[in-house]
């Protein structure tokens, strides 16, 4: 049986042989999952710290745990950032969920010129919160200990800056000549090294595609267009498919 993962703060985990998991995470573990004494669970702060625990007791709303091992995992490298064009309905959340499951490190919502969905005011804040909640739950489900960052929505100018600073800037486009499957990626950053210098940034357009002026702006930032293959994917699946290619090419899936 897969060991379940729950979130806990670094302060709770650091330097204690026993911890109490309460609040929403504790209630979910005790009341919904009905975890029992002597069962194993893992706690993480979502930033690489992992506590392997055994349940001592449950009161139905919280768990008392014995920490058997506490370790810090290095951040994945090279870091993969996906700029995801805003999608209508639940397609954006689907993209966030699957990209989180396969290992994307940063997800940047992009308000592209051809985006049908627009995040404005209270609606925009709710949509961003939903993306972040989706990423958290997908990270726990897939047993990730480094959780992806879902940033504030970015303008096209901001995306161009991200591409200009990346070691490998990529724009996914169905009319590109270069195949993504043949791309060369940087080696993993050395321990304690500059992870940003090894960052891969991938741009995925919205349902309406990337506008010519946006492609030109990204080209000026040094980003080359790449294609996935002979078919055209939806925006909700294109990022996940392309990220899978990049993660395999990077050696992170070895």
Automatic annotation (TrEMBL):
Cellular component GO terms, alphabetical: cytoplasm
GO biological process: rRNA base methylation
Domain Ribosomal RNA small subunit methyltransferase E PUA-like span(s) in chain numbering: 21-59
Pfam families: Methyltrans_RNA, PUA_4
Domain Ribosomal RNA small subunit methyltransferase E methyltransferase intervals: 77-246
Gene Ontology molecular functions: rRNA (uridine-N3-)-methyltransferase activity
EC number of this enzyme: 2.1.1.193
Alphabetized UniProt keyword annotations: Cytoplasm, Methyltransferase, rRNA processing, S-adenosyl-L-methionine, Transferase
Function description: Specifically methylates the N3 position of the uracil ring of uridine 1498 (m3U1498) in 16S rRNA. Acts on the fully assembled 30S ribosomal subunit.
Family to which this protein belongs: Belongs to the RNA methyltransferase RsmE family.
Protein name: Ribosomal RNA small subunit methyltransferase E
Source organism of this protein record: Actinospica durhamensis
Lineage: Bacteria, Bacillati, Actinomycetota, Actinomycetes, Catenulisporales
């Amino acid at each position: 049986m897969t060991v379940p993962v729950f979130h806990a703060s670094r302060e709770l985990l650091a330097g204690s042989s026993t911890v109490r998991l309460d609040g929403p995470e504790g209630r979910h573990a005790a009341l919904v999952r009905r975890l029992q004494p002597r069962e194993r669970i893992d706690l993480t702060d979502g930033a690489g710290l992992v506590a392997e625990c055994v349940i001592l007791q449950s009161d139905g709303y919280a768990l008392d745990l014995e920490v058997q091992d506490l370790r810090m995992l290095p951040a994945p490298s090279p870091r993969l950032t996906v700029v995801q064009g805003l999608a209508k309905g639940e397609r954006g959340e689907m993209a966030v969920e699957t990209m989180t499951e396969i290992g994307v490190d940063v997800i940047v919502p992009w308000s592209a010129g051809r985006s049908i969905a627009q995040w404005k005011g209270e609606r925009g804040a709710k949509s961003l919160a939903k993306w972040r909640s989706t990423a958290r739950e997908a990270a726990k489900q897939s047993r990730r200990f480094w959780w992806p960052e879902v940033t504030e929505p970015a303008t096209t100018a901001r995306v161009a800056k991200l591409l200009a600073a990346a070691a490998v800037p990529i724009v996914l486009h169905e009319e590109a000549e270069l195949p993504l499957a043949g791309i060369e990626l940087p080696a993993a950053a050395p321990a304690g090294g500059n992870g940003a210098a090894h960052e891969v940034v991938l741009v995925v357009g919205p349902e309406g595609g990337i506008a010519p002026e946006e492609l030109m702006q990204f080209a000026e930032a040094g980003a080359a267009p790449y294609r996935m293959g002979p078919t055209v994917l939806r925006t909700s699946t294109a990022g996940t498919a392309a990220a899978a290619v990049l993660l395999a090419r990077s050696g992170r899936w070895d």
